[in-house]
C-alpha cells in the first residue's frame, strides 16, 4: 500500500503576504531614516548660522579703529572673498557669504553656499559709530502668524540665510547655479521675497512644495544681526 507524502511549505499567497509586509517595513524605515537625515541637516545648518553670526561680529570687532561688517562676495563665480569698490563701500548689498574672508564654512548641509545681505552703513570700511542710524538702509524681518505677515525686526543690518533643501536660487559649493525660483504666484512667494533684492526678508515655518499655505513652499533658514545687538556687542568688547 503506497503512502502519500505531503510536502509542507509556503504557498504563493503566503509568500506574497510576507513580501508585502517586508516592503511596508522597509519603506517605513527608509522614510523614517530620511526624515532623521533632514532633521539633522536642519539642526546642523541652524547651528552653523549661529556660528556665522558670531564670526560676523568678531570680524567687526577685529577691524581696528571704528568697527565694520564684511561685504558680500559678488564675484562670478564666487571666490569666497568680500567685494568692495575703490571707496571702501560694498560692491552690492547682497551676494554670497564671504566664507573665505571669514575663514568659515563654504556651504550649508545641502552643499549650497549661504546668501548674505548687509547694510553698507555698517560695512563701509570707515566704520560705524553709536550715532549711525539704526533704521536707514536696514532690513525688515517678517514672519507669518496665522498666515499674516508681521514684523520681527525693523533694524537688521546683516542677514545670512541657507536656501534649505530645495536650494532654489542658490549656488552650489562647486559654484554651479541651482535651479532658479519660479515666478511670483507659482508656490514660492516667501522664498522669492528673500531673493528679490529689496530690504525685506521672511523667516517662518517650513512647508513642503504642494502644501496649500500662504506664501507657498518654504525651507529657507535665516539668521540676522540687528543694529542694537551689534552695537551692544561692540560696546561690550570695547570697540565702541
Report on this model:
- With 240 residues, the protein is an alpha+beta fold.
- It has one domain (12-237).
- It contains 4 helices and 6 strands; from the N terminus they run H-E-H-E-E-E-H-E-E-H.
- The chain has helices at 12-61, 99-102, 189-193, 227-237; strands at residues 94-96, 115-118, 139-145, 148-162, 200-202, 221-226.
- Strands 1, 2, 3, 4, 5 and 6 form a 6-stranded mixed beta sheet that branches.
- The longest helix is centred in the N-terminal third of the chain and has 50 residues, at 12-61.
- The protein is elongated.
- The model has no long low-confidence stretch (mean pLDDT 91).
Number of helices: 4
What is the overall silhouette? elongated
Could you estimate the helical fraction of the residues in percent? 25-40%
In whole angstroms, how far apart are the ends? 109 Å
Counted up, domains total 1
Question: What is the element layout, followed by pairings?
Answer:
Layout: H1 12-61, E1 94-96, H2 99-102, E2 115-118, E3 139-145, E4 148-162, H3 189-193, E5 200-202, E6 221-226, H4 227-237
Parallel strand pairs: 3-5
Antiparallel strand pairs: 1-2, 2-4, 3-4, 4-6
Structure summarized in a few sentences:
The protein is of the alpha+beta class and 240 residues long.
What labels would you give this structure?
240 residues, alpha+beta, single chain, 6 strands, six-stranded mixed beta sheet, 4 helices
